[in-house]
Amino acid sequence: MPPAFAPASEDAIPLHVVAEDRLADWLAEQSETARSWITALGFTGALGQSVAVPDANGRPALAAVGHGTAASRKRARFHLAAAAPKLPKGSYRLAQPVDGLESEALGWLLAGYRFDRYRKQTPLVAGLVAPDGIDAARIEAIAAGEVLTRDLINTPASDMGPPDLEKAARDLAKEHGAAIEVITGDALLDQNLPMIHTVGRAANRAPRLIDLRWGDSGPKLTLVGKGVCFDTGGLNLKPAASMGLMKKDMGGAAAVLGLANMIMATGLKLRLRVLIPAVENAVSGNAFRPQDILISRKGLTVEINNTDAEGRLVLADALALADEDKPDQIISMATLTGAARVAVGPDLAPYYSDDDAFVAALEKAAAAQADPVWRMPFHDPYEAMIEPGIADLDNAPKGGFAGSITAALFLRRFVTESAYAHFDIYGWQPTDAPARPKGGVGQGTRALYAALGPLLKL
């Protein structure tokens, strides 16, 4: 079921949000029985705490969740979601306004996420009535987009290969009345998408380019997502420790499909295109080799110095195709480099943009949506690092320095006619956190969705 708020009801349980420094004042407003009960249970207002006060029939008459301190709130996101799973079964309504109301309401919905395709999971039993002052349908659509992203990433490659990713895109297109075309296998060569074909040709599930279009008026936005459904590293085989999470290497594709769902479900007035090169980077007799030189769709030649730097190759052809249409904005999203994780860790979404207006809109939206991003530089002096001499470009510069930056510079070479931004995301939550269980996660998509209005003047 898609995430949804609980129906409004007079029986909804009042939910108080209590900060640690407000606990004494709040307790003074409660009945003596409630004060005794709350004190006996050790409720202090710390983040993640919850308490329910029963009525004479044992049903919760009111409940409270801790809002911590200003310092503790800075160190966490989705504060109400930290306590939601601990509340008794029932529907709850906020008893007072809270800061960041939209984000907190979204966090509550996402706290109910469970990946239950292979094993039954315990559902969230505490529902939240949509608070006054929010657009409930919009928040439910954002949550549904995030759930789609998580489900796609969490599904193992045995059930999420290129054909399955195509099916997910087709299902999304059908749901929203979008058009979709898919170029598969050797037809990629006929359609001048040679690097997508080269990277995916060794797998027993054919490579493909998924092309979804929606909307007939407004600015043109093209999203390009890396859809490497499993990455062995190719002939430069990954060690076991590095291969363990490679089902998530299609996290960029999952992210753009989730963002597309948000856009279409809320009817933003724009012309949307989603391009996903869907491949597996496998090992076989016809796998591409180190020091091969590939000719891209754009005509640029690429020397292969590591077959494990394949994501930028498939993205390059898709970006060149996107650029030919000259949209107002191209955005690529990819689980592209380990260097980005070393630089900023798993929680921040690094991004690249030379457009100050894009940066301003995104940074403002990211703060409001509790979806943190971090600007990285398209550092022009590093261009020489991706120029090997024997070909126009090097897919894996030696030396190990600035790996995320050089990958972004590589991709930028394929966009010359359009505004361009690139996200080098992780797509994975390594430990449980409020509203973000361990597993696949969207990064940057909610910030992007919120930024599209001011950015594209919608």
From TrEMBL:
<dbReference type="Pfam" id="PF21337">
    <property type="entry name" value="Peptidase_M17_N_1"/>
</dbReference>
<dbReference type="InterPro" id="IPR048816">
    <property type="entry name" value="Peptidase_M17_N_1"/>
</dbReference>
<dbReference type="InterPro" id="IPR000819">
    <property type="entry name" value="Peptidase_M17_C"/>
</dbReference>
<dbReference type="InterPro" id="IPR043472">
    <property type="entry name" value="Macro_dom-like"/>
</dbReference>
<comment type="similarity">
    <text>Belongs to the peptidase M17 family.</text>
</comment>
<keyword id="KW-0464">Manganese</keyword>
<dbReference type="InterPro" id="IPR011356">
    <property type="entry name" value="Leucine_aapep/pepB"/>
</dbReference>
<keyword id="KW-0031">Aminopeptidase</keyword>
<dbReference type="Pfam" id="PF00883">
    <property type="entry name" value="Peptidase_M17"/>
</dbReference>
<keyword id="KW-0645">Protease</keyword>
<keyword id="KW-0378">Hydrolase</keyword>
<feature type="domain" description="Cytosol aminopeptidase">
    <location>
        <begin position="306"/>
        <end position="313"/>
    </location>
</feature>
<protein>
    <submittedName>
        <fullName>M17 family metallopeptidase</fullName>
    </submittedName>
</protein>
